[in-house]
Amino acid sequence: MSATRRPAPPPNPRPDLRWSGLTHRGHVRANNEDNFLALAFDGRELRYLGKTGEASTAENDFVFAVSDGMGGAKSGEFASRITLDRITRLLPKSFHLGAQGLASGFADILEELFGSIHRDLLNLGRSYEECAGMGTTLSLGWLAPGWFYFGHIGDSRIYYFPKTGGLTQLTHDHSHVGWLRRQGKITEREARTHPMRNAIHQALGSGHQMIEPQFGAVACAPGDHFLICSDGLIDGLWDRQLEEIIREPGDLSAAQRLVTASLETSGKDNTTAVVIEILTDARVPPSAPVASPP
To answer: For residue 283, is pLDDT > 50?
Structure first.
């Protein structure tokens, strides 16, 4: 009795993912406390990615993250760097779980990741005077074939732009102003001028003993886009402008178009954007030959 052979994967899977990222200190701040991460990993190794590129999710998972630090002197900058370094050390260990299907376990993995980083920052704050009270936001997207898993704390943001149009802010701003917006008590315009707009209730470190990060998942399809950004980008752009800039092609990368446009109207804060575009479905290569039974 002959066994039916499965189709062999193509030797060079076609790209199903495009990304771009950019950070700028803005026009006012002396240093940049924002950091972003673009990372590919499998069960054997991890690779840092450039500011722009294309790749396939057939054999790798991808992580994109934005971290906006806070604290005196340069401790905020240190906190955001430490946070992204911990991601590179901890998350790739979970690749095999991802390969088996994350639907039931991704939140547990990300919760442990956020908790571990939080504890590290608190310990540093207690151990070193110059690190006292330092903290950071973290908005992270974990991309596997067909799914975008995310974890978030603070007032950086993750947006979802489906191919069919429109946008959804996937994450909640962990702030009083964010709560007011979700309750419909203030508008997007009112939130920008609210006297408490810069006060956040949840962050990694910052002396917070208890944190409640947000976790979620989105099934993604070709033509979808995701944006991970710091609050500095939002300070210069309305939601409708985000969608217009992301969907309109140009010579510059999507991240560069967003950051440039935000700096033209604001630039009061550090400004960071990471844009991810789903190109096609790597799980079903259209050109892969189907093997016949011998």
So the answer is: no
